[in-house]
Design a protein that fits this description.
The complex is a heterodimer of chains A (239) and B (122). Chain A has 239 residues and is an all-alpha fold. Helices cover 62% and strands 0% of the residues of chain A. The two termini of chain A are 23 Å apart. The termini of chain B are far apart. The relative contact order of chain B is 0.12. Helices cover 18% and strands 16% of the residues of chain B. Chain B is an alpha+beta fold and 122 residues long. Chain B has a domain of 61 residues: Ubiquitin-like (UB roll). Chains A and B meet through helix 2, helix 6 and helix 7 of A and helix 2 of B.
């Protein structure tokens, strides 16, 4: 397997691939047809990004289907289960806000990721808008939707610290500044939605590392089993 | 998706027992979301054309759903959404008096004069 494991395209590609798979799990299960199409569109945008990024790192199919859990470099945030709709929206809000800020920065540079980032940042801006619209409506909706949205934001908060761990190969990214801008945006939207910014730690105290080091949470194994099963059972299968 | 609740006979417990209810409490069920008509302008210079309809809780979400449902293959450069309830439509019962009288008046069509030579795209 020819891989350039040092390229930052690998961790960013893994983020897009794994979140795309999670969003795809909503197909057939979303609360309404219109929202199902919206989530599937976002999933397909991310899959397109993943294909470009993983192709920069090696053979996209080998990387997606034949790596073991510890070889994936995605954030633990994106592998978290969909939960209820509020959990999916909270995950989308945290991640797409981060991804938009990161891609906007990469697009201004001249690295190998700049062309992809410049194109993808428009897609991601829409993903962030979608998450914000739902955050506003769920937060400022009924008692039930407010409670569920706050619960989801709190539950996923401990995975947000990892977003701003420097990624190897992305040396020009000002990570602390990115974190400040992310926090400001999240704070602003949660205030508008009458929700509270979670107060707990932004990383799990027990973790020796994170997804960027190949250390993943328990639900990730089952996600990989489903995603890789077909290719591993029928190598080289095509449509 | 269109599980209409019989008005006057449904009790709160009966409504809560709906299998599609995602636990939204007193919130309107998605089936109760209003219907919106979607109009897409395919490119500059053309009119907005009716593309279809969708459900959404409010106008902003209707616009976003319309973007995802009707322009994902580059069909448009502009979108309108209009509450379906705001559209006044002619009734099929009035078809005869509305439309039939125009049927036998071919002189209303601009087909009775020669097109001058050299005029294209008419």
């Amino acid at each position: 397997m020819t891989q350039r494991t040092a390229t930052p395209a690998l961790p960013l590609g893994d983020d897009a691939l794994i979140l795309s798979h999670r969003l795809g799990e909503w197909a057939g299960n979303a609360p309404v047809l219109e929202e199902e199409v919206a989530l599937a569109n976002i999933a397909l945008d991310l899959l397109g990004q993943a294909r470009v990024l993983l192709s920069l790192a090696g053979d996209e199919d080998e990387l997606a289907y034949l790596r073991e859990e510890r070889q994936f470099r995605n954030l633990q945030l994106v592998e978290q289960p969909n939960g209820d709709f509020a959990h999916t929206i909270a995950r989308q809000l945290y991640f797409s806000t981060y991804q938009e800020l990161l891609y906007a920065h990469l697009a201004t540079g001249d690295g190998e990721l700049a062309p992809l980032a410049a194109k993808a940042v428009k897609e991601v801006a829409y993903h962030r808008d979608h998450a914000e619209q739902w955050t506003l409506r769920l937060g400022d909706g009924t008692d039930e939707s407010h409670t569920r949205m706050q619960r989801a934001l709190d539950a996923l908060w401990r995975f947000t610290g990892e977003l701003f761990e420097p990624v190897e190969g992305l040396d020009t990214v000002p990570w602390p500044a990115l974190y400040d801008r992310w926090t400001a945006r999240i704070t602003a939207i949660l205030e508008r939605a009458t929700l509270s910014v979670p107060e707990g730690p932004q990383r799990g105290a027990w973790t020796a590392g994170g997804g960027r080091q190949g250390l993943h949470t328990e639900p990730f194994g089952r996600l990989l089993a489903e995603m890789q099963h077909l290719h591993r059972s029928h190598p080289g299968a095509t449509w | 998706m269109t599980t209409a609740r019989p008005s006057g006979t449904s009790t709160p417990s009966a409504a809560a027992a709906s299998p599609a209810d995602t636990g939204a409490g007193a919130a309107p069920h998605p089936a109760d979301w209003p219907l919106w008509e979607v109009f897409v302008r395919s490119r500059r210079g053309l009119s907005h054309t009716h593309a279809g309809s969708l459900h959404a809780p409010d106008a902003e979400m209707a616009l976003r759903n319309a973007r995802d449902l009707y322009t994902r293959r580059s069909e448009g450069v502009s979108l309108w959404v209009v509450p379906s309830a705001q559209i006044t439509a002619s009734s099929p019962d009035e078809k005869d008096e509305f439309f039939e009288p125009a049927g036998d008046k071919p002189y209303r069509h601009p087909t009775f004069y020669e097109i001058p030579e050299g005029v294209h795209h008419l």
